[in-house]
């Protein structure tokens, strides 16, 4: 079964319905994974998306912050959510796609500005979140299962995943401690980086540009924070991947752009 998956930190789904409709019209994804939806489930703008064919949904949101959603034209089974760090902050949705493919849609905490867990509780939360996820995946007995993990993982692991490794080495999202934790998580199921499977690691690639830049395209000070991973059992089905950079220049843009992966 071939299908197209798009993951996007939408940064308020109610503000970006027009952009979502544009994505559907131009990309025709079979599965849409959204992060930072910022809305409680009862008022999630589901009707226009159902009208576009996304009749199978898992909505897991809260007021004003966080929130993840899986919107699918393909049937979903065993839809559930997972909480971490003793918080119910709507950061992890799980469902089974046809073919018994386990799909994880995750929004890892950003971590604040100070890369010191003693001085910054947000950074401590981020590290704990990564540690708990790693322990959970490592203990899971389904390591050979076909699985996909997507989302705003808020870590730019490679030197080419940031605009300047030298200037960002001590900036949250690219610090050595985060990259090491990220690598441990990736090793739990030998997750394959689907985007870097096609776009060489020596090529600079970003999926996020700060709102603070007066001209995001001219300065191009981006980071690759949005990822799609697959287990080795699915790696042979990868057909292509790309990052929709131009979406950052759309009207009322998110600071993140969609990432697209096709499965043959």
Tell me what you see in this structure:
- This protein is an alpha+beta fold.
- Helices cover 22% and strands 26% of the residues.
- It contains 7 helices and 14 strands.
- The protein has a 6-stranded mixed beta sheet, with no helix packed on it. Strands 5-6-7-8-12-9 form a 6-stranded mixed beta sheet. Strands 10-11 form a two-stranded antiparallel sheet.
- Helix 3 (121-139) packs parallel to helix 5.
How are the secondary structure elements laid out?
Blueprint: E1 3-9, H1 17-27, E2 31-35, H2 47-51, E3 56-60, E4 68-72, E5 77-81, E6 92-97, E7 101-107, H3 121-139, E8 147-152, H4 165-168, H5 176-187, E9 192-193, E10 208-209, H6 216-219, E11 222-223, E12 226-230, H7 232-235, E13 238-243, E14 259-263
Parallel strand pairs: 1-2, 7-8
Antiparallel strand pairs: 1-14, 2-4, 3-4, 5-6, 6-7, 8-12, 9-12, 10-11, 13-14
Helix pairs in contact: 3-5
What are the key terms here?
6-stranded mixed sheet; alpha+beta; 264 residues; 7 helices; globular; 26% strand; 14 strands; single chain
In short:
22% of the residues lie in helices and 26% in strands.
Strand content: 25-35%
Strand count: 14
Would you identify the regions where 5 or more consecutive residues have pLDDT less than 50? Answer: none
Order of helices and strands: EHEHEEEEEHEHHEEHEEHEE
Please state the structural category. alpha+beta
Gyration radius, to the nearest Å?
17 Å
Q: What order do the strands of the largest sheet run in, or round the barrel if closed?
A: 3-4-2-1-14-13
Give the overall average pLDDT.
97
Could you give a short account of the major beta sheet? 6 strands, mixed
Assign an overall shape: globular
Percent of residues in helical segments?
A: 10-25%
Number of helices: 7
For the termini, the CA-CA separation is 7 Å
């Amino acid at each position: 079964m071939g299908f197209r998956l798009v993951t996007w930190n939408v940064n308020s789904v109610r503000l970006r319905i027009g952009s979502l409709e544009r994505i559907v019209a131009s990309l025709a994804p079979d599965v849409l994974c959204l992060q930072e939806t910022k809305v409680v489930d009862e008022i999630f703008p589901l009707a226009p998306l159902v009208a576009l064919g996304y009749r199978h949904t898992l909505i897991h949101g809260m007021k004003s912050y966080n929130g993840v959603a899986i919107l699918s034209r393909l049937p979903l089974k065993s839809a559930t959510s997972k909480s971490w760090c003793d918080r119910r902050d709507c950061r992890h949705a799980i469902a089974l796609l046809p073919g018994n493919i386990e799909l994880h849609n995750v929004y890892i905490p950003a971590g604040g500005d100070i890369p010191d867990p003693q001085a910054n509780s947000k950074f401590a939360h981020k590290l704990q979140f990564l540690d708990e996820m790693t322990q959970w995946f490592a203990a899971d007995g389904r390591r050979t299962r076909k699985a996909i993990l997507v989302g705003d993982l808020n870590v730019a692991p490679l030197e080419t995943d940031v605009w300047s490794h030298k200037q960002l080495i001590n900036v949250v999202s690219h610090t050595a401690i985060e990259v090491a934790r990220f690598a441990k998580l990736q090793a739990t199921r030998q997750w394959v980086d689907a985007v870097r499977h096609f776009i060489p690691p020596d090529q600079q690639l970003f999926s996020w540009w700060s709102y603070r830049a007066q001209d995001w395209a001219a300065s191009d000070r981006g980071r690759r924070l949005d990822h799609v991973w697959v287990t080795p059992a699915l790696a042979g089905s990868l057909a292509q991947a790309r990052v929709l950079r131009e979406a950052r220049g759309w009207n009322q843009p998110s600071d993140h752009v969609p990432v697209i992966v096709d499965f043959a």
